[in-house]
Specification:
7 strands, alpha/beta
């Protein structure tokens, strides 16, 4: 049994041989393309399975209390997806979801288009845009059941980037590392102003490791005011 399969089973996810093969193809594509463009610092196969694949799939732990990503089809957007994490692993594991991958770097989007074609993934859309620009697109704003992001930013900044994409009744789930109590405290005003409510904080350790992770789950209770997100750069200089 592969390490990825073991990790998935610990999460209650049963992967078929076809799905495991898709993960292997995807991993090899990332590692190969990483030789000519910066996609990941992780190139060891087992470490990749843990820190990219198992970490991405761990989202299931965060959403099961509020709603279920496996209750497909659901509309999911991965904001600042980079090399496709966590969106592509979730799509392979839960093929019925409708997935949108958004990133500000067009060459990453072109790479993801190649992955989608190679794996023959259906109902996947890629968008080249900055997070704050995409959130003002009426086709994307207030549109998603789940907004997910592994992007590195403080919770108040990330909430301004991401919560506008969620429909009322939907959720924004942020992947975080380390201690987040102070960060959450500082984000309280942003969450409220942007129409959200903190639903849950799920902390866990990745299997067979001492890597501690947290998911911040925010429910969208009302539409985000039209003034948000603000123009690029303001979020970090003047956080809510």
């Amino acid at each position: 049994m592969s390490k990825l399969n073991e990790y998935a089973e610990l999460l209650g996810i049963n992967l078929s041989e076809e799905q495991l093969n898709a993960f292997e193809i995807y991993k090899n594509m990332v590692i190969e393309r990483n030789k000519v463009m910066n996609l990941t610092a992780i190139t060891d196969s087992d470490e990749f399975d843990l820190k990219h694949f198992a970490d991405s799939l761990s989202l299931i732990q965060a959403v099961k209390e509020c709603s279920h990503i496996s209750d497909s089809p659901v509309n999911v957007i991965d904001v600042g997806t980079g090399a496709g994490f966590p969106g592509i692993p979730l799509k392979i594991a839960f093929p019925d979801i409708h997935l949108t991958l958004l990133d500000s770097l067009n060459k990453r989007i072109r790479f993801l288009d190649e992955v989608i074609a190679e794996l023959n993934l259906k109902n996947v859309t890629t968008i080249h845009a900055r997070a704050e620009e995409g959130a003002r697109n009426p086709k994307l704003r207030d549109n998603f059941d789940f907004v997910i992001s592994r992007a590195v930013a403080s919770q108040n900044v990330l909430t301004e980037y991401c919560l506008p994409y969620a429909k009322v009744g939907g959720y924004f789930v942020a992947y975080k590392s380390g201690e987040i109590e102070e960060e959450l405290k500082n984000a309280g005003n942003a969450i409220s102003v942007l129409g959200g409510k903190l639903c849950d904080t799920v902390t866990f350790s990745l299997a067979d490791s001492d890597i501690h992770r947290s998911f911040v789950v925010i429910e969208k209770q009302k539409k985000t005011p039209k003034a948000y997100p603000r123009k690029a750069g303001i979020q970090r200089k003047e956080p809510l």
